[in-house]
Write a structure and sequence with these properties.
By secondary structure, this protein is an alpha+beta fold. It has three helices and five strands. A hairpin with a 5-residue loop joins strand 2 and strand 3. The longest helix has 16 residues.
Length: 142
């Protein structure tokens, strides 16, 4: 039996004032031998995410405790509290990698997920150009 994700949480943090757009994903994984691991990945949206093994080869209660502790720390962080992400597994290379290993290649379909930040910007009527401070005077222009 290949490794499988038992529980997963997909979070994001977005603050345009700080130019911050980050994702944090955490997984409780049942390994081939019946033991459990807790794996997280984080980084700026659209970049390669950093993968960290929070705990490995533990009993389920120990791995779940590590999973909950890390998840609560991210959700309740004083300066950068993370929220649930609607993008889900579409933003996670690790989740896609596990699915690809457990499902024959002919059965894999890539989910089409929209970026919630881009949707929010479009809904506000602003064009998404990727240019910071567009329409504002820059010190170099004076």
């Amino acid at each position: 039996m290949p490794s499988r994700i038992v529980e997963a949480e997909y979070l994001h943090y977005y603050n345009p004032a700080r130019n911050s757009d980050k994702v944090f994903n955490i997984f409780l994984v049942e390994e081939d031998d019946g033991r459990y691991s807790c794996i997280s990945e984080y980084g700026r949206r659209g970049t390669s995410l950093v993968r960290v093994v929070v705990c490995s080869n533990k009993s389920r209660p120990v791995a779940e405790r590590a999973f909950r502790k890390k998840l609560d720390a991210k959700r309740n962080h004083r300066e950068t509290p993370y929220w649930d992400s609607r993008a889900g597994s579409g933003q996670s290379p690790y989740a896609q990698e596990l699915v690809a290993r457990s499902v024959p290649a002919s059965k894999i379909s890539t989910p089409v997920t929209a970026d919630p930040i881009q949707e929010q910007k479009r809904a506000e009527g602003r064009a998404v150009s990727g240019i910071l401070n567009q329409g504002q005077i820059d010190s170099l222009e004076i």
